[in-house]
Amino acid sequence: MGWMALAAAGLIGGCAEADGPVTAVNELASARPAERPDAGAERFGPAIDVHCLRHADWPTHPSYGARVEVRDLVVTGVKERGAERGFFAQHRTRPSWGGVFVFVGEAAPAVAPGDVIAARGVFASFGGFDRIDVRAGAVERLGRATVPAPIEVALADVAEGGARVEELQAVYVEVRDVVATRATAGVDFAVGADDDVAPRELVVTSFVAADLDPSPFVAERGQRYAAIRGVGYRAGEPGTYAIAKLAPFGAHDVFAR
């Protein structure tokens, strides 16, 4: 579906510039003094709508490597462990194409769920997963808001090859009435639809919740779940094991029957 059809359907908003420039900046610990954006914020230009950032069909969609700024997004969860730290943020009311991962490197993310933020950095892709790299940029906390509730989605839509995998990257979603088809091995297990009408596996990963530490989600084959929540994720290198996954933020996102 092209960008005009998406806009007409109300799935995403326009790509107009966000209101006003960022003026107060909380710098990340890893930002080097010469690269601090309060000393050269013009390098990033005006803020853009997150939907424009994420949807490649928008005429003003930036290319990878572009310096970008998004603002007024709500933090839904934080990855606090490992070398790939950061946080997930999404639009308050338009989740479709409205989520993004903000990568901070090995620094401790200085945000919490419910923070409303602006992020300034480089638009990048890692293993097919979009992100804003703010190691030479900044994150600003603008206020607080209610964390958006997860949107219910069909398992087949967010599993590898599903129709909404790209749309719901970094968006907080929920699948219901699923059963484990593969037991936990390493950081992953897999689930399928409980009714088995459309057999497809969705990989559930603990990489966001626990990095490479032992998974807090210990599933046995046949274990049934009333619901599993998490963000749409993609892990691995293209052509090898980069597949769509669901990444809960913690045990509070996994509801066994």
Keywords:
OB fold (Dihydrolipoamide Acetyltransferase, E2P), 4 helices, five-stranded mixed β-barrel, mainly beta, 2 domains, five-stranded mixed barrel, 257 residues, globular, 40% strand
Per-chain topology:
Blueprint lengths: L2 H6 L17 E2 L22 H5 L12 E13 L5 E6 L8 E7 L9 E12 L2 E16 L6 E2 L2 H4 L13 E14 L2 E6 L8 E4 L1 H4 L13 E12 L7 E5 L6 E3 L1
Parallel strand pairs: 4-6, 7-8, 10-12
Antiparallel strand pairs: 1-6, 2-3, 2-5, 3-4, 5-6, 8-9, 8-11, 9-10, 11-12, 11-13
Characterize the structure shown:
This protein has 257 residues and is mainly β. It folds into two domains: 3-144, Nucleic acid-binding proteins (OB fold (Dihydrolipoamide Acetyltransferase, E2P)), CATH 2.40.50.140; 151-256, Nucleic acid-binding proteins (OB fold (Dihydrolipoamide Acetyltransferase, E2P), Beta Barrel). Helices cover 7% and strands 40% of the residues. The chain has four helices and 13 strands. The chain has helices at residues 3-8, 50-54, 155-158, 207-210; strands at residues 26-27, 67-79, 85-90, 99-105, 115-126, 129-144, 151-152, 172-185, 188-193, 202-205, 224-235, 243-247, 254-256. A five-stranded mixed barrel has the order 2-3-4-6-5. A five-stranded mixed β-barrel has the order 8-9-10-12-11. The longest helix has 6 residues, at 3-8. It is globular and about 55 Å long. The model is unreliable at 16-41 (pLDDT under 50).
